[in-house]
Amino acid sequence: MLFPVAALLLALGFIHGVTWPGVLLAGGAVAVVLMTAEVIARSLSRTPAQLVRAAEALSRGQQVSLGSSDDGETAQLAATLAELSAQLGSRQHLLEKTVESIRDPVVVADEHGMIVIVNAAARRLYSVEPGFDTLTGVRTFQNYYADGTTVMPIPDTPMARALRGDDVDDFELIVKPQPPQPAVFLVVNARPLRDDTGNLRGAVAVLHDVTAQRRAHQALVESEQMAQAIVRTALDAFVQTDQDGVILDWSPQAEVLTGWTRSEAVGYRVVELVFPEELRLAHRQRITRFLQETAAGGMGMRYETACLHRDGHRFYVEVSLNALRRGDGWIINSFVRDVSQRRIAEEQLIQAQKSESLGRLTGGIAHDFNNMLTVITGTIEILADGVKDNPQLAAIAKLISDAADRGAQLTSSLLAFARKQPLQPGETDVNDLVGEVARLLSQTLGSQTEIRTELSRNAWLAFVDRSQLGAALVNLAINARDAMPDGGTLSFATRNIQLGIPDAVACGVERAGDHLVIEVTDTGTGISPTHLEKIFDPFFSTKEVGQGAGLGLSMVFGFVKQSGGGIEVKSEQGRGTIFRIYLPKADGTAQRAAEEDDLPVRGGDETILCVEDDPTIRDYVTGQLESLGYNVLVAANADAALEIVKRGTAFDLLFTDIVMPGMNGRQLAETLMAGRPALRVLFTSGYSDGVLPAQQGRGGHGIPLLTKPYRRGELARMLRRCLDLQVDFQGDPVPQPYSVQPDLERFLRENPPAKT
After folding, report:
1. For burial by CB atoms within 10 Å, which of 250, 425, 689, 700 has the most?
2. pLDDT band (50, 70, 90) for residue 660
3. Where are the extended beta strands (E) located within 261-300?
4. What count of other Cβ atoms lies within 10 Å of the Cβ of residue 38?
C-alpha cells in the first residue's frame, strides 16, 4: 500500500530541480506517521476498531476522520492523527505538482509494467494515462526507433530493461508520434526501483528531448558539407592554413593550379611550397600585417603576386584572404585565382594605348612630311633631267633624291609602327614570298650566315600586304645577322595553327581562328630580359649611335598588328631568338603579285578631276598631270569638287587625297560613284588615318592607292592602270582574253638566248 508514495519519492531522485532534502523531508513525514500508528497500536491494547482502520488509512496516505469521543486520550490521539494526515496530503500534492511541471517526460511503472506515474510531458508524447501496461498495451504513438528506420522491439526499450533490473544510461532513441507531429529525438535514463529487502517493485524512466540539438547539429553538418561542396566546385583554388602558414586544406583546384597534390601539400608551409624565394619574406610580412589588421577589426585582404608551379614556371595569381579566430590562434582561408592571362591582356592594352598615342603623334607629322616629300621627290626628277649634262650639278641632284628617299623610308617606318600606313592586303602565298626573301638574303648576308627554310607543304594563304610582309621579313633577317657577328644559322619556317580565344589573347591577334605562323629563328647572342620588354618601342636600339634609327622592329610590330595578326618573341642570352608572326588565313587562292610596268612613262589626253587640299601639292600635281598630256580640273576640297560635278563638267577619273577637312576622299568617291558606278578613282595619301579600310575594291580588285611620296613615273603608271581598266556600266571589270605574250617577253628578258 505504501508503493505509490515510495515510488514517487524515488522517481524524484532522477529529476533535476527536486532536491534531496525535499525528498528526505517527505520521507520523514511518512516515517512519523508510521511510528505514530505503531505507538497507538502498542499503547491502546483496547483500541477501538475505528482507530485501527484510521491508522491503516493514514498509512495509505488517505485523509482520516475519527469523529468525536468522550475519552480524552482518544480525542487527543485523534487530533494528532488528523494533523499528520493533513500534512502528509499536502506534501504528496506538492510532490505530484513538482513532477507534473517537469519539462522532460517522467514515467514510473510498477513491477508488472503498469504505469503508476506519468507527467504532462510524457502524456503529450505518449498519449497514455496511469494504468497503461507498458509491456503489452497498444500504443497510440508509432513506436521507438533506434536509428529512425528500424522498429525497436518492446523488450529492448529502456523501461522494459529497467523492469528486468538493468540500469540504462544515456540511451538514444527516436519516437515518432502520430502524424503530422515530427519525430522526437530522446536521451533516456532508466532505473529499477527496489524496496529495503532488495525486491524489484517497479522502474522509473526520465526522457530528455534533444530534438533541437540534433537538428542544430544536422544543420551544422549540412552547412559544412555545403561549404566543402562549394570549395570543391569553386572555380578558384582554396587553401587553408594556420597563422604560421602550415597548410590545413588544399582543394582540387589548388592541385591543378600548382601541380602539388593535397597529400603532398597538407602539413607543409605554403610560403615554401609555391612562392619564389625572393618573395617569401614579403609574403610573411604581408600575412603578419593582415592578422594585425584583422584583430583590429579588418574584413580581409586582396592582392596579386607571382607563384611558382611545381614544374618551375611562374604564374600570377590574385589572392583573397579572410581569417577566423580559433582558440588563441587564427585560421586563414585563401581563395586563389590565376590572373596570368588577364595580366597579359592588360600589358597588351597598355602597349596598344602607347602605340595609339605615338601613332597619333607620328601620323600627324608624317602627313605633312609626306606632302613635302612628294614635292621634293617630284621636282628633283625635273631638276635632274635639266642638269644631266653637268656632272657636278647632277651629283647634287642625286644626293637630294637619295635624301628624299631616306626621308620617305623613315616616314613609312613611323606610320608602320603607328599602324597608319596605307595597306593593300591580298591573298598571299607566304611560302613563295619566303622563298624570294631567302634568295635575296643569300646574296646579301654573306657566306657566314646559313639560311634554312622549313616550309609546310599545306601552308594556308595569308591575307596580308605582300610587299610590306617582305619588308618585315628582311628587317628581321638583318637584325638576326647583326646578332650573329661571327656567323650562324637563320631559319624561316611556316605552319598552320588554329587559335582558341585564350591563345588568341596570349598571341595578341585580333580574333581567334585559323592563322598562318611564320617563324624567324637565329642562333645569335639573344636578347636580355630587360631589353626584351622594349624591343618593339620606336627609336629603341641596342646598337651604337648612328648604327640604326631603332624603327625596324617597331615597324614590323605595327604592320603585323595593322594586318590583324600578332607577333611574339622568345629569346635567351647566348641561345638565339625566335620571332613568331601570326597572320590571318585568307579565304581563296593567291593572286600573283603585280609586277612593276617596265614600259616607258606614258601619259594621255583624258580629263582628270584632281582634289587636293594642300596648295603646294595641288600645284605640283597639276603641273605633273598637264606635263603628261592630261586635261586637269582642280578642286581644293570635296565641296569644290561637287560644285564642278553639278555644273555638268565631264571628266574620266577622280584623283583625290584621302585625308581632307570636312568630307574626306573616300566619302567623296562614294558620293560620286552612287550616280556613276563606272567612274574610275585613284586615291592618294601618305597617312590614311583609317579612312581607307584594308579591304578589296570593286570586283575583287585591290583599292587603287598611290602612296605619298611618289615620283612622276609612279603617278603615270597608276593613272594608266586605272584608265585602261575596262569596266561595265556597273563598274565591274570586264574580263579580257588571256595572252601569253607578256609572260613570254618577261621570260626572254630574264633568260636572254645565248649568243652563238
Report:
1. 250
2. confident
3. none
4. 11
Where do we find the cell 529487502? 197
Distance CA 46, CA 40 (A): 10
Q: What burial letters (b/e) apply to 419-457, b meaning 16+ CB within 10 Å?
A: bbbbbbbbbbbbbbbbeebbeebeeebeeebebeeebee
As a whole number of angstroms, the distance between CA 322 and CA 293 comes to: 11
Sign of torsion over alpha carbons 121, 125, 129, 135 = negative
Task: Give 358's pLDDT tier (boundaries 50, 70, 90).
Answer: low
For residues 331 and 322, give the distance between their C-alpha atoms in angstroms, rounded to a whole number. 9
In angstroms, rounded to a whole number, what is the distance separating the alpha carbons of residues 648 and 664?
22
Measured CA to CA, the distance from residue 139 to residue 471 in angstroms comes to: 99
Q: Pull the grid cell for residue 429.
A: 602565298
Q: For residue 604, give the C-alpha cell.
A: 594621255
Q: What is the pLDDT of residue 203?
A: 92
CA distance 158 to 307: 61
Phi and psi at 529, nearest 5°, equal: -60, -35
CA nearest to 243, candidates 266, 269, 274: 269
Q: Is the pLDDT of residue 678 over 90?
A: no
Q: Name the burial class of residue 99, with classes exposed (0-12), middle (13-18) and buried (19+) by CB atoms within 10 angstroms of its CB.
A: buried
Digit-coded pLDDT (tens) for 624-633: 899 899 999 9
Please report the pLDDT score of residue 493 as a whole number: 93
Examine residue 252 and say whether the peptide bond preceding it is cis (omega within 30 degrees of 0). Answer: no
Backbone conformation region of residue 582, classed left if phi is above 0, alpha if psi is from -120 to 50, else beta: beta
The rounded distance, in Å, linking the Cα atoms of 69 and 78 is 9
Q: How far apart are CA 502 and CA 42, in angstroms?
A: 110
What b/e readout covers 311-350, taking b as 16+ CB neighbours within 10 angstroms? Answer: eeeebbbbbebebeeeeeebbbbbbbbbbeeeebeeebee
Q: Is 708 helix (H, G, I), strand (E, B) or coil?
A: coil
Using alpha carbons only, how large is the chain's radius of gyration in Å?
53
Helix, strand, coil abundance in the chain, percent, nearest 5:
45, 20, 35
For position 642, what pLDDT does the model report?
A: 93
- Per DSSP bridges, beta strands 576-584 and 607-611 are unpaired
In the prediction, which pLDDT does 492 show? Answer: 92
Global pTM exceeds 0.70: no
Report whether pLDDT(4) > 60.
no
d(CA 353, CA 296): 42
Is residue 359 over pLDDT 50? yes
Spatial CA neighbour of 499 closest among 486, 510, 483, 487: 510
Give the CA count within 13 Å in the CB-facing half-sphere of 46. Answer: 2
Across the chain, mean pLDDT equals 76
Contacts of 699 (CB under 8 A, 6+ apart): 727, 731, 732, 733
Q: 655 pLDDT exceeds 90?
A: yes
Phi, psi of 361 (to 5 degrees): -70, -50
